[in-house]
Amino acid sequence: MSTTEKTPEKKRVHVKTWGCQMNVYDSERMTGLLKPLGYETTETPEEADLVILNTCHIREKAAEKVYSELGRLKDVKARGGTIAVAGCVAQAEGAEIQARAPQVDFVIGPQSYHKLPEIIAKTARGTGENLYTEFDVDEKFDALEEGRQAEGYSAFVTVQEGCDKFCTFCVVPYTRGAEVSRNADAVTLEVRQLAQQGVREITLLGQNVNAWHGAPPVGASGEAWGLGELVRHLARIDGIDRIRFTTSHPKDMDDGLIAAFGEEPKLMPYLHLPVQAGNDRVLKAMNRAHTAESYLRQIEAVRAVRPDIAISGDMIVGFPGEDDAAFEDTMALVREVGYASCFSFKYSRRPGTPGAAMPKQVPEDVKSERLQRLQALLNEQRHAFDRAQVGRTLDILFEKPGRLDGQLLGKSPYLQSVHVIAPESLLGQIVPIRIEEAGPNSLRGVLV
Ligand code: SAH
Ligand code: SF4
Ligand code: F3S
């Protein structure tokens, strides 16, 4: 009888991801942590031994999806498979998940992913708990540092987690905990490793990425760094040609970061800077710590150093107390900014947030009507921005084959999808492309 088993038995894990890029990144890291245990990823839950649902709690609709998905996973359970719920619903409603969905083997919050291998082993032995939702961000960053496998030419890199802003509509401060910055040396090491694996573009991620601050890298002099300094530092890494960051808060948009858009050519001309609303009374009730005017001045400052920059944002309509006049202020702000792209949502009342208990909740049909008007305007603006690229030559980073034969799909500096008939040898290359046409969701270009 053998007592040791060197190679772990082959198993399959299926991860389904909802929510923001932070979750996309976390899912990738979870599968990375499971690889040494013998887990290969599979696209379908049907053939998985382990299913992880990486969930989002931001709006009610997002949160409810996990329960309908769990209903569909009966087969996994019948085959003796394991079901885990991760992400922000796990963090916010762990006990409720267990009550509503007893088929779930364990619930794991975003701060506990580094413990995943240990939890899986315990679950297999039948000695696991079923709720892992303590906050322990530092340890998580440490455990995630090593041995990352890059996929493709563009990669996310988490540099900051959590949020201290407590906007009154938002669950993130409760699901992700306080703001923590990863240190510059750890980030640099990860980006170097990615560059060695062929990555050309990195997107620095954080719930409030521009709140990033940290001690300078070992050997560098000076005081604590902000994101602008980190960007400039990472730009010196050979092989990395494009840097992006998301998501930013207006409060943390400092001069150093704004200046970097004008001075660091590797920092791409795209800024996602959510404002949420255009009326100061509503912004105050949202606890946003900025006014419509201060936001517009920031956009002006960014455009002064990088006139072609694509501005993106997030908007909420129907926050409690938003009357018709306040909504018109949002429309006016949008007209003044001219967004290249912008997400917009109906306010969703989230349990435990101050907004949920506020008077003057806006009726659903009013929210729908406002959202429709806002989205019509935002769509127009997006198409106008896209059409303005026609005839220009843009540098495109080719990331993957397109849908049609002989076609490649890439990204413009402004984060637009561009498809081009081009040889596969150009994958991973940054190539000048003349834009010929702006479609509803992408641009078409030709090699010059
Ligand atoms: N930290 C980021 C993103 C947070 S979540 C930021 O501050 O910009 C992404 C977007 O979801 C928010 O910008 C907001 O527009 C939206 N959102 C958050 N809570 C919401 C709620 N309760 N109802 C509707 N939209 C919400
Ligand atoms: Fe939520 Fe506001 Fe924090 Fe963004 S800044 S994550 S909207 S609380
Ligand atoms: Fe959703 Fe959590 Fe991201 S609530 S938006 S997955 S931080």
UniProtKB/TrEMBL annotation:
Its main location: cytoplasm. It is an enzyme of class 2 (transferase). Residues 387-448 form the TRAM domain. It catalyses: N(6)-dimethylallyladenosine(37) in tRNA + (sulfur carrier)-SH + AH2 + 2 S-adenosyl-L-methionine = 2-methylsulfanyl-N(6)-dimethylallyladenosine(37) in tRNA + (sulfur carrier)-H + 5'-deoxyadenosine + L-methionine + A + S-adenosyl-L-homocysteine + 2 H(+). [4Fe-4S] cluster 2 binds at C163, C167, C170. One of its GO terms (molecular function) is tRNA-2-methylthio-N(6)-dimethylallyladenosine(37) synthase activity. Residues 11-125 form the MTTase N-terminal domain. [4Fe-4S] cluster 1 binds at C20, C56, C88. Keywords: 4Fe-4S, Cytoplasm, Iron, Iron-sulfur, Metal-binding, S-adenosyl-L-methionine, Transferase, tRNA processing. Its cofactor is [4Fe-4S] cluster. It is found in: Cytoplasm. Binds 2 [4Fe-4S] clusters. One cluster is coordinated with 3 cysteines and an exchangeable S-adenosyl-L-methionine. Its EC number is 2.8.4.3. Residues 149-384 form the Radical SAM core domain. NCBIfam families: miaB-methiolase, MiaB/RimO family radical SAM methylthiotransferase. Belongs to the methylthiotransferase family. MiaB subfamily. Monomer. Catalyzes the methylthiolation of N6-(dimethylallyl)adenosine (i(6)A), leading to the formation of 2-methylthio-N6-(dimethylallyl)adenosine (ms(2)i(6)A) at position 37 in tRNAs that read codons beginning with uridine. This is tRNA-2-methylthio-N(6)-dimethylallyladenosine synthase. It comes from Parvularcula lutaonensis. The gene is miaB.
